[in-house]
């Protein structure tokens, strides 16, 4: 299994509080992604990174920010959590871009509940 | 319009039959196409990737790509109860961005 760890695994927080989710990899992969998964929506891309300090927005980036100060860590921050951000959050990593052995490795997910 | 579209299902197929899953995408510049399987409560895992027009076979799985029609499909032959899962179509729509469809729930009935 790819070395990818998400923390925390579960979190309950209150509306209006800031929340940071961490994705840590030991694979030295270049690309890192944050997705959220809700019933009926599959996986929706929030933000992604293609290198240290290089990030870009995905499909549903409003209300979220990210940072990648070193290769192994990709942080997702909800500046002021809302109930609509209750979801399962997945981090994924990939070492190649467009090559035929391209593959996303997923973390175990973080269940976030905003009350 | 979502960049990647799938029928949400559920799709119910008898054991031993062929399951056919479909996906369309909007970005004509897309180069890489994937099918992921996700069991309930688990993380997605890659089952097939395809990069050029035509068919690609791997065991009981066949991925089909038609770039002109912007269409990707997955066929599962000799369906087994263990194939019951949600199948997610994914497309690399630019240099790094990978977009998923909403997933199709597949149920294999004995």
End-to-end separation of chain A in angstroms reads 34 Å
Q: What's the helix-strand series of chain A?
A: EEEEEEEEEEE
The overall pLDDT average of chain B reads: 93
What would the principal axes of the Cα set say about the shape of chain A? globular
The gyration radius over C-alpha positions of chain B equals: 13 Å
Given helix and strand content, the structural type of chain B is mainly beta
| Largest interface (C-beta under 8 Å) | A-B, 27 and 25 residues
Strand content of chain A: over 45%
Radius of gyration of chain A: 13 Å
Number of strands of chain B: 11
How many beta-strand runs of chain A? 11
Q: What's the number of helices of chain A?
A: 0
Task: Give the fraction of residues assigned to helices of chain B.
Answer: under 10%
Order of helices and strands of chain B: EEEEEEEEEEE
Number of helices of chain B: 0
Biggest sheet details of chain B: 6 strands, mixed
Which bin fits the share of residues in helices of chain A?
A: under 10%
Uncertain segments of chain A of ≥5 residues (pLDDT<50)?
none
């Amino acid at each position: 299994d790819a070395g990818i760890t998400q923390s925390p695994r579960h979190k309950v927080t209150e509306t209006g509080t800031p929340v940071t989710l961490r994705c840590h990899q030991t694979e030295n992969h270049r690309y890192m992604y944050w997705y959220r998964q809700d019933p009926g929506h599959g996986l929706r891309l929030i933000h992604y990174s293609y290198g240290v300090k290089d990030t870009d927005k995905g499909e549903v980036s409003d209300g979220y920010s990210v940072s990648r100060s070193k290769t192994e860590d990709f942080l997702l921050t909800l500046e002021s959590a809302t109930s609509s951000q209750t979801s399962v959050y997945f981090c994924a990593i990939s070492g190649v871009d467009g090559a035929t052995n391209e593959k996303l490795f997923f973390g175990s997910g973080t269940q976030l509940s905003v009350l | 319009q979502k960049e990647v579209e799938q029928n949400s299902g559920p799709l119910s197929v008898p054991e031993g039959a062929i399951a056919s899953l479909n996906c369309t995408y909007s970005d004509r510049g897309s180069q890489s196409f994937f099918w992921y399987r996700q069991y309930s409560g688990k993380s997605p895992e890659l089952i097939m990737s395809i990069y050029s027009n035509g068919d690609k076979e791997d065991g009981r799985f066949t991925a089909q790509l038609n770039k002109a029609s912007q269409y990707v499909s997955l066929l599962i032959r000799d369906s087994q109860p263990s194939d019951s899962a949600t199948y997610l179509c994914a497309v690399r729509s630019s240099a790094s961005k990978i977009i998923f469809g909403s997933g199709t729930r597949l149920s294999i009935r004995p």
